[in-house]
């Protein structure tokens, strides 16, 4: 017996992603500011943004780029990213967003696997992009530069060149069920795979998120999470534009820059990864900026600690909410609603409209027993399975991985361990592959990380399983000290955790480090820590 969302279903528009967002623009909305570059303060109205998207679609179509083609997009968050993303879609092609931090070999691997025929990049990354493009046979004149003046690059048309050509956008019919975007899953525990997401997947997620998130044209949304990641792509880029909010972009994160942009632009909605919530709760620099414009902070992509979240909310006098999703689910399946002040913030809230879930025992393969409706009791933990219109089409050219993740009923097996209470509130316990087995006990790294972060002398922390001298797996903590805690010792860390957890869960080894390796979306790269440990 699956559990359906407690919220009523939302009608899903039967249209392309471009048409959903820009096809409904009213004349008065066209004059609103759509996007502001937080680094340069340059802005585009909705009308200017739409006109550039249409002009780019025409330029791509004139080059034969359209339905059936894939185009790579490497860029930090800028207004030009939005033009390229929606211009590619309006031309009928597929976008494969590429993490700007990837190496040339990694970029080439994604371009080759996706079958990309063209590539957009910024000038600082042009050499790397050229090398990757050449490796997979993309011609130089199909490597487009998003910045730069017209004619600046002899072999590479700039975005300005393409927009100046004056081609009309093509007349095409886009099937909403067809592939729109091909992001690659982060690969924190394995090789990244191409996740096939349709126009309908995006439309379903956008209409499901809005009743809980309450975005409006009055809001200014800070886009610091990368647009190339599914969380940034759906919430910051597409949902914000759909509801005519103003998007304020940041090319790269620095704490000073982040706080400055929030203060100068009076941002009201922030979308961040939980590690930044820790910083906002603890760092003294926060006090130097006027952050009173913030109404709400949404966290996602990694576990959020309740006490840290409450400290952040009190310090900034704003709401803070947690959410859950993944690339394969076209972003969000669970969220704490804007006006829900009761649900604990270490949970991920309730299932969004149009979705249903199962929680399945990882040993027996059977659904766990669910608590009675309304009960505060929680179920036994099990793997979270999700079903609904935003579930991916599958993994590109990887039927074996698709079969392992998507069952015959349409449920996606997330690999995340969760519990649910009688209200339908879901709490993510951990990842199946990341649980530590200590003398037969399952130990959650996430739980231990929450305990560690409660220590005011610890700025950041991560936990992995390592092998001790007796060949047993034990929990080991990697700890970043606060700036005023240089005398913190490993034994003090071990004792702090031991006082707060059951004996089998204790941290049994500690290493101090300057930083914790993470993806741009904030997920801890445990595989990097394991490689560091093995070196």
Strand coverage percent: 15-25%
Largest sheet: 9 strands, mixed
CATH topology of the largest domain: Rossmann fold
CATH superfamily of the largest domain: ANL, N-terminal domain
What is the percent of helical residues? 25-40%
Largest sheet strand order: 3-2-11-10-12-13-14-15-16
CATH level 1 name of the largest domain? Alpha Beta
Structural class: alpha/beta
pLDDT below 50 for ≥5 consecutive residues: which ranges? none
Number of helical stretches of at least 4 residues: 15
Number of distinct beta strands: 26
Number of discrete domains: 3
Rounded Rg: 23 Å
Question: How would you characterize this protein structure?
Answer:
The chain is of the alpha/beta class and 535 residues long. The chain folds into 3 domains: 42-174, Rossmann fold; 197-432, Rossmann fold (3-Layer(aba) Sandwich); 435-534, ANL, C-terminal domain (GMP Synthetase, Chain A, domain 3, 2-Layer Sandwich), CATH 3.30.300.30. It is 29% helix and 23% strand. The protein is built from 15 helices and 26 strands. β2 and β3 form a beta hairpin. The radius of gyration is 23 Å and the shape is globular. The protein starts with a strand and ends with a helix.
């Amino acid at each position: 017996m699956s559990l359906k969302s407690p919220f009523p279903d939302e009608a899903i528009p039967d249209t392309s992603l471009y048409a959903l967002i820009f096809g409904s623009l009213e004349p008065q909305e066209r004059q609103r500011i759509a996007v502001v570059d937080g680094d340069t303060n340059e802005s585009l109205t909705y009308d200017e943004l739409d006109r550039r998207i249409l002009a780019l679609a025409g330029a791509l179509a004139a080059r034969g780029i359209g339905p059936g083609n894939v185009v790579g997009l490497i860029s930090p968050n800028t207004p030009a990213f939005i033009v390229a993303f929606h211009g590619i879609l309006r031309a009928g092609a597929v976008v494969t967003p590429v993490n700007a931090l990837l190496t040339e070999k990694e970029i080439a691997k994604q371009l080759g696997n996706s079958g990309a025929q063209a590539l957009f990049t910024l000038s600082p990354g042009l050499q790397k992009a050229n090398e990757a493009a050449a490796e997979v046979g993309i011609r130089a004149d199909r490597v487009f530069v998003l910045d730069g003046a017209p004619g600046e690059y002899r072999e590479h048309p700039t975005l300005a060149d393409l927009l100046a050509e004056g081609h009309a956008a093509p007349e095409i019919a886009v099937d909403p069920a067809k592939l729109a975007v091909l992001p690659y899953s982060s690969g924190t525990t394995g090789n990244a795979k191409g996740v096939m997401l349709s126009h309908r997947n995006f439309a379903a997620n956008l209409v499901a998120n809005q009743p809980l998130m309450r975005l409006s044209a009055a809001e200014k949304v800070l886009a610091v999470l990368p647009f190339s990641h599914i969380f940034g792509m759906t919430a910051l880029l597409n949902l914000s534009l759909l509801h005519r909010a103003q998007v304020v972009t940041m090319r790269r994160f620095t704490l000073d820059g982040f706080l400055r942009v929030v203060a100068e632009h009076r941002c009201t909605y922030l979308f961040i990864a939980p590690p930044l919530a820790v910083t906002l709760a603890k760092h003294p620099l926060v006090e130097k900026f006027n952050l009173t414009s913030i109404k709400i902070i949404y966290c996602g992509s990694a576990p959020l600690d309740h006490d840290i979240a409450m400290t952040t909310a009190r310090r900034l006098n704003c709401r803070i909410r947690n959410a859950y999703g993944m690339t394969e689910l076209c972003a969000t399946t669970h969220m704490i609603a804007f006006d829900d002040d009761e649900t604990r913030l270490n949970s991920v809230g309730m299932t969004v409209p149009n979705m249903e879930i199962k929680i399945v025992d990882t040993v027996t393969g059977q659904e766990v027993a669910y608590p009675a409706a309304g009960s505060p009791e929680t179920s036994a933990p099990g793997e979270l399975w999700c079903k609904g219109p935003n579930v991916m089409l599958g993994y590109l050219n990887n039927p074996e991985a698709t079969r392992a993740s998507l069952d015959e009923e349409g449920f996606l097996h997330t690999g995340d361990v969760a519990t649910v209470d009688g209200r339908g509130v879901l709490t993510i316990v951990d990842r199946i592959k990341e649980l530590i087995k200590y003398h037969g006990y399952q130990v959650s790294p996430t739980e231990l990380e929450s305990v560690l972060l409660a220590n005011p002398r610890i700025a950041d922390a991560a936990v992995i399983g390592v092998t001790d001298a007796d060949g047993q797996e034990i929990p080991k903590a990697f700890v970043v000290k606060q700036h005023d805690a240089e005398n913190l010792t490993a034994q003090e860390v071990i004792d702090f955790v031991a006082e707060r957890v059951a004996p089998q869960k204790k941290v049994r080894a500690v290493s101090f480090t300057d930083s914790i390796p993470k993806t741009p979306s904030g997920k801890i790269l445990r595989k990097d820590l394991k490689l560091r440990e093995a070196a």
